[in-house]
Amino acid sequence: METMKNTHYNITHVATLEDLAVTALDMFIKSANKAIQTKEAFTVAISGGHTPTRFFELLGGEAQSGKIRWDRIQLFWVDERCVRPDDRASNYRLAAETFLGKVPIPDGNVHRVPADYSDYAKAVSEYADTIRRVFSLAPGQVPAFDLMVLGMGPDGHVGSLFPNSYARFDTEALVSAVYIADGDYSRITLTHPVLCAASKLVILVSGSEKADILRDVMQSELDEVRYPVHSLWPVMDKVTWVVDTEAGKYI
């Protein structure tokens, strides 16, 4: 494993998807332990998709290791498709099947996005209220998650902040709805000010299909509309990219 630092990026290169998962697990455990030692709680937001699946499975294997104090973890999701929690497309279902059912995290510490509501505005409001309650936020405050584990889509999106979507420009709210046509799923997502306020962000990138977009976002002029991940550039000192060989072959 090799870590490269320059004025812009902190990139951890790993060989395989398995190595990526092991590295993500190590970062999760270290972040959790640091936060719990400091303030007796660890707030983390995770994403879905194919790339983190093995990382989630490894999390499930830590149930009895004693390395993670699950009772001190407040778990959120960065984004969610507007489906039932038992739908195959649900990010919550992925987490439930890979680790939630295996670890002793209290039910009250698991904060699912209520994305199965037919009223998306209600889902947005309820999820934002949950965040404000858990973080004890005053009006106008933005939560500072201890850790966010993100992926990056083939169009350069993070969370569900897609190119040219309204949510990308929503700088006032904590949570936003993303309305998508053409047969895809509408979504609920944290906004980019919330992402940028996190203490640490880890972006997992795996597979040859991500090689071109990873090269493009790192070599192109900043364009937050075309590449929403560029909204993280002002806080790049808090971002660690974990990239396997196939995804990182051009960087």
* CATH fold-type name: Rossmann fold
What is the gyration radius calculated from CA atoms?
A: 17 Å
Give the amount of beta strand, in percent. 15-25%
Tell me, what is the CATH class?
A: Alpha Beta
Helix proportion of residues, in percent?
25-40%
Domain unit count: 1
Computed structural class: alpha/beta
**How many helices?**
6
CATH architecture: 3-Layer(aba) Sandwich
Provide a descriptive summary of the structure in words.
It is a single chain. The chain is α/β, with parallel strands linked by helices. The protein has one domain (2-244): 3-Layer(aba) Sandwich (Rossmann fold). Helices cover 28% and strands 19% of the residues. The protein has six helices and eleven strands. The strands form two sheets. The protein has an eight-stranded mixed beta sheet. Strands 5-9-8 form a three-stranded antiparallel beta sheet. A hairpin with a 4-residue loop joins β1 and β2. Residues 2-7 have low confidence and may be disordered.
Write the layout of secondary structure elements.
Elements: E1 2-5, E2 10-14, H1 17-39, E3 42-46, H2 53-60, E4 73-77, E5 79-81, H3 91-98, E6 110-111, H4 120-135, E7 147-151, E8 175-178, E9 187-190, H5 192-197, E10 201-205, H6 211-219, E11 239-244
Parallel strand pairs: 2-11, 3-4, 3-7, 4-6, 7-10, 10-11
Antiparallel strand pairs: 1-2, 5-9, 8-9
Helix pairs in contact: 1-2
